[in-house]
Amino acid sequence: MATFSRAAAELSGSFVSQTRSDESSYVCLGSDSPEWMKAAVMLAHDGESPNDGRYELIRWAAVALSEQQCSDSDEASEALLELSRDLVPVQTAQLLAWFSENLFRLGDCDEAAEEQSLPEQLTVTDLLSLGYQRAAERVLSILIAEIEENRLSVFDPGYDCRLLLSDSHGVYIPQLYCENISKSEAKEWSLAWWAVETCQHGPDEEHYWEAWQSVCDSASWEENGSTWRLLQNGDLWAVKEDVEIPEEWLSC
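Below the sequence we write its predicted structure tokens.
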């Protein structure tokens, strides 16, 4: 399970820059991004059709959340107001570009002005800044909720796995892993005893690799409130059962 900030970092890192045929650039999610990220970005558009400005805001919101070092959504929510202020562009031209993408954003400006105690004389820049901040607050709120809901399934090597045996042990990994497993432990971990015994005999045993495959497929144990299993990608790892392992990590 990833911390909130770790999951936010995974989301922010999934954005990629693209170039259109007219050479204009834009950001979007990579095509191989998890489904929960695609759903989060769609929701964070907050009723707007997909557009460059909202994608850019969502990306920077994810970056801001990833930098907070929050363990959960409660900590992230405490920083929401400050984060939304930090996301407001400092240049009037950027604010005007944001507004011009969707004239309905004027509603954000009007609502923000109505809800706050503001001086009677406001510049256009002030009003646009307030509207942008209001939109940023909603984007952040949506992303906080979506990240919290999905972070349990986000793989974090620091929390969700531990190295058991390095690949430097080569063909002896099955034997080394199984050598101290007792019959009662094999039963507790859902292992076939014949497979454990075969691995204990070493790589010269006829069905050594078949037995090891059985061990890897079947091993399951409870520890610290989580269910763990075996995974080998050269090295042998214990990994939490309820997380999705990234393809690039499996092939490393």
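The chain is about 55% helix and 15% strand.
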